[in-house]
Design goal:
heterodimer; A: alpha/beta; TIM Barrel; 2 domains; 9-stranded mixed β-sheet; 3-stranded antiparallel β-sheet; 14 helices; B: alpha+beta; Rossmann fold; Elongation Factor Tu (Ef-tu), domain 3; Alpha-Beta Plaits; 8-stranded antiparallel β-sheet; 13 helices; 26% helix
Chain lengths: 360, 600
């Protein structure tokens, strides 16, 4: 059973660091977008039972209640959602309302991923977020009251951030969430923040924050099950795990990336291209495809598997991969007779390890 | 023969040799003024660009003197630089007299003295000439005094001239005729002609520049090179006016050239004697020796693909510079290239720039080094060109290295600093004397290896450019040298090992490992970098293990981009050289080799 990813490309305002595709001043476009989404769903060759659903963005919570109704009805009319084991929507602390919460709850959304980013208002201002820490608290309480699972995103290596403010943010969200994603602030090209900060090396600066999260969260029963993901037991994001397992994911919406039967495809990247493609009922050339050779696929899967605490099973492993891993220092790995996974230190040094596996 | 005068000009760089030569050509009508380019005899573009003269082409001038007689004046140039000391001696051997040109404001410089002494030793008549008297700072009387005190020549009747304005040039010509003796020698004796220079021409093969000492030489004659017994029929004999102009015959006392379809310069070496194959002279002219490279460095193409071009260019260049030696070598940082040998540092620079200017080859040059001689316990003596040639320390009885005798001339206020500099370079004091109350001559002996690294630059900066120097090789001396090996993560990294005096081993070892620590990026494990002599480690530093190399996000849309980033990261690492488990970037090798790309 595949997962389904729906990209909602609208935001109230773009954050200074964000390079994801989204548009602002969109009121008139949302209905055309939903029409196109329906057209895209209709033309899919198969409409299988879904295992997971993930509505991401952008900011899905900027859709009004009636737009949400339409979105959910598109999904349920084209896909069998009876076996869904997880349904997540992303949301922003300032656009989430009681109405959203009860609508999601009533429509079997099980999990809300909230873009908290920081509980420090100065840091939120640097990031160009439009919410403040009070709104974040209220939003977290709302989700908690509803009984849905809460995941919070937090960003580290923000200019001016200290271990103390990082600790405060972690501790606050820990009281509400069962899942925390920690992202290092990256300066993506052509974002306002990258222009402001020039070529600051945030990668090196991230060390202490990341290491601290690795130290502190497990003590509070948040297990690091992937490079950027910490969860209480049985609260891992199953949808995200499917990316790291090469499981099938159907993708809808502009710039969304899916993976079906070993082929990775990318939807038209901008809203206008997406709407144009919809007018022609999404001819094949509106998607860009990438098909890896079986060998390349194995290597990619090894790299992706090594992101998670489950690692890679020795019996699936290419001998050359095993050889390379064996040549590296032991403290990077946790090795069992069946599997090899990254240690905490290994997770901090992922790129240096994975890059050795590429091109084998 | 009585009307021939063969002479050369001895002068320090910048003291106006080329300009004076131009003026002589103009005054004798050898070149019409309208054809004059500035400094017409500098044939290499390089020389003109740098404003220094390696060697002028010879020239023959006709001059009607004030006594009404016609004279043939042959100006044979000597390269002004000590690198070419042997060639200087051969050029001097072709002359009976020399103009000793001294700048009226600068006074006598170190190289001038060395060359003047050589000329005196070879029995040449020296004509002191004080040049640049038009300059406001000219102090011709001081210059005269320096000539008499430093060189020991009576300069009271030195000709005062300004090559720039032409003042005094006529006096010089008259003095050449009057004071320089006509050549001796006998045109009827068996041929003896001295090769004082030879150049390669694409069409005619080797052109030998000769001074006929005895006998005659003409086209069609069978000649023999006395050092190797090779014979050739002469195609053409001629003189320099200054272009090559054939003549029927060159006879004793004359200066000119011959061509004989000679393929390589190696067959017609400077200093060899040409004789008549049918009627050979009983013995060769004295003083022939094969020149030997003393300074070595690696030349590598900037683009690795350009190796064949570099090889072809070197081959061609060696056709007209037989003093360059080369053999293929390869370097971990630079790929394939050549280890080249030179007469000295200037010679090295000249060759490098010629490769660039004339053959369009962009190259990188490694820091120069010398050849060591190693006496082994077996009694064998081997030459060691690079650190890896050194046998195990336990097999070494003695290491010898080339030494030079160094003279430095400078304003006396810099004496202390220069002495310190030379002592830091393992120099040993020989003598010090005051040329004038303001100027000092210091004489030291020091290892050539210390001299070639950066001595000249340091001397210039210590003396604000007011010092001049001269040196000569004085042979091999035993030194307490050691080979310092560099270990990266316990593995020997040959490219970084070096040879130095044992007292410097710690400091230099420290400098190398510290530099490597800066240049080797952090990796997955801690990397010890050690300097050792034999098994004894003398310095150790650690490159700290990498702490973090992950950016934390990778969902459906990120996977492909992420893979490309990892590929890029791997590419970067592939460009590094693996020593054991450690990847070492090219910059580390380059920094160690003190490579520069020829840009000054």
């Amino acid at each position: 059973m595949p997962g389904l990813y729906v990209h909602v490309p609208f935001c109230e305002k773009k954050c200074k660091y964000c390079s994801f595709y989204s548009v602002v001043n969109h009121e008139s476009l949302i209905d055309s977008y939903l029409d196109a989404l329906e057209a895209e769903s209709r033309r899919l060759e198969s409409h299988p039972q879904l295992k997971t659903l993930y509505i991401g963005g952008g900011t899905p919570s900027v859709l009004s209640l009636s737009q949400w109704k339409r979105l959910i009805s598109i999904i349920t009319s084209y896909f069998d959602t009876s076996s869904l084991i997880e349904a997540t929507t992303e949301a922003n602390p300032n656009s989430i309302t009681n109405e959203h919460i009860s609508f999601w709850k009533d429509n079997n959304i099980t999990r809300v991923s909230l873009g908290v980013q920081s509980m420090n208002d100065g840091e939120l201002a640097i990031l160009g977020r439009i919410h403040d820490s009070m709104q974040a608290l209220k939003a977290m309480e709302l989700v908690n009251t509803s009984g849905m699972n809460l995941s919070c995103d937090l960003i580290f290596a923000i200019p001016g951030q200290t271990l103390r403010t990082w600790n405060d943010s972690l501790h606050t969200v820990m009281n509400y969430a069962s899942h925390i994603s920690t992202y290092q602030l990256t300066l993506e090209p052509d974002t306002p923040l990258a222009r402001e900060l020039g070529d600051t090396d945030l990668n090196a600066q991230g060390y202490m924050f990341y290491r601290y999260a690795q130290y502190m969260l497990p003590g509070k029963n948040f297990i690091q099950y992937e490079i950027s993901s910490f969860a209480q037991e049985n609260h891992e994001c199953i949808h995200n795990l499917s990316y790291w397992n090469h499981d099938d994911v159907i993708a809808l919406g502009p710039s969304a990336v899916g993976y079906i039967d070993g082929i990775r495809y990318t939807n038209p990247r901008t809203l206008s291209k997406y709407l144009n493609a919809a007018k022609k009922n999404f001819p094949d050339e509106s998607f860009s495809r990438e098909e890896l050779s079986p060998h390349e696929r194995k290597i990619e899967l090894a790299v992706l598997s090594l992101r998670t605490r489950y690692g890679i099973s020795r019996k699936d492993m290419l001998p050359e991969i095993e050889h390379v891993l064996a040549s590296m220092p032991d403290d990077l790995f946790i090795k069992t007779p069946e599997r090899i996974s990254l240690s905490k230190r290994g997770m901090r040094l992922g790129n240096s390890i994975w890059s050795e596996l590429i091109d084998l | 023969m009585n009307n021939i005068r063969n002479f050369c000009i001895i002068a320090h760089i910048d003291h106006g040799k080329s300009t004076l030569a131009d003026r002589l050509l103009e005054s004798t009508g050898t070149i019409a003024s309208r054809d004059m380019k500035a400094q017409i005899l500098d044939s290499l573009t390089l020389e003109r660009e740098r404003g220094i003269t390696i060697k002028l082409v010879p020239v023959r001038m006709n001059y009607t003197a004030d006594d009404g007689n016609q004279y043939i004046l042959n100006l044979i140039d000597t390269p002004g630089h000590v690198d070419f000391a042997y060639e200087v001696s051969r050029s001097l051997a072709a002359c009976e007299g020399a103009l000793l040109v001294v700048d009226a404001s600068q006074g006598v410089e170190a190289q001038t003295v060395a060359n003047a002494y050589q000329a005196i030793e070879q029995g040449l008549e020296i004509l002191p000439v004080i040049n640049k008297i038009d300059l406001p700072s000219a102090r011709p009387d001081n210059a005269k005094q320096e000539i008499s005190e430093v060189v020991g020549l009576d300069a009271s009747d030195a000709v005062l001239t300004s090559a720039k304005t032409g003042e005094g040039v006529h006096d010089i010509l008259e003095r050449i005729v009057k004071d320089i003796p006509a050549p001796a020698g006998n045109p009827d004796e068996p041929l003896q002609a001295l090769i004082f220079d030879s150049v390669y021409d694409n069409y005619r093969g080797v052109i030998c520049y000769v001074r006929v000492i005895n006998g005659r030489i003409r086209a069609g004659q069978n000649i023999m090179f006395m050092s190797n017994g090779i014979t050739y029929p002469v195609n053409e004999a001629g003189v320099f006016r200054p272009s090559f102009t054939p003549v029927e015959e060159l006879s004793a006392g004359e200066v000119g050239y011959i061509t004989a379809s000679i393929k390589t310069l190696a067959e017609a070496q400077v200093g060899d004697t040409i004789t008549d194959a049918a009627n050979p002279a009983p013995e060769a002219l004295p003083g022939y020796k094969k020149v030997k490279s003393v300074v070595f460095c690696g030349f590598y193409p900037v683009e690795r693909d350009n190796y064949p071009q570099l090889r072809d260019a070197l081959e061609k260049l060696c056709l007209n510079d037989s003093a360059v030696t080369y053999e293929p070598e390869s370097s971990e940082a630079l790929g394939f290239g050549f280890r080249c040998g030179f007469l000295g540092l200037l010679h090295m620079d000249v060759v490098r720039e010629r490769l660039r200017e004339e053959y369009g080859v962009e190259l990188v040059a490694t820091a120069p080094n010398v050849i060591y001689e190693v006496v082994k316990s077996s009694g064998d003596v081997i030459e060691a060109h690079r650190p890896s040639d050194f046998p195990d320390a336990s097999e070494i009885v003695e290491i010898r290295e080339p030494y030079i005798k160094l003279s430095v001339f400078m304003p006396s206020e810099y004496t202390g600093r220069v002495m310190q500099l030379v002592q830091d370079k393992r120099g040993t004091y020989k003598s010090m004397d005051y040329i004038t109350p303001e100027r000092v001559r210091l004489v030291y002996e020091m290892p050539l290896s210390e001299f070639i690294v950066d001595f000249h630059d340091k001397l210039k900066s210590q003396t604000r450019g007011y010092a001049s120097l001269d040196y000569e090789l004085v042979g091999l001396r035993a030194s307490e040298l050691v080979r310092v090996d560099i270990l990266v993560n316990g593995e020997a990294a040959d490219a970084f090992s070096f040879v130095c005096h044992k007292d410097q081993a710690y400091n230099r070892g420290h400098a190398v490992v510290t530099k490597l620590k800066e240049l080797i990026p952090s990796q997955l494990f801690e990397i010890p970098i050690q300097a050792s002599i034999g098994r004894r480690v003398i310095v150790r530093v650690n490159v700290r293990a990498l702490r973090k190399d992950v950016l934390a996000k990778c969902y459906g849309g990120d996977i492909t981009r992420k893979r490309k980033l990892l590929e890029k990261q791997k590419e970067g690492k592939k460009r590094m050289k693996q020593i054991g488990k450690v990847a070492i970037p090219q910059e580390a090798f380059l920094a160690f080799m003190q490579v520069d790309s020829g840009e000054k």
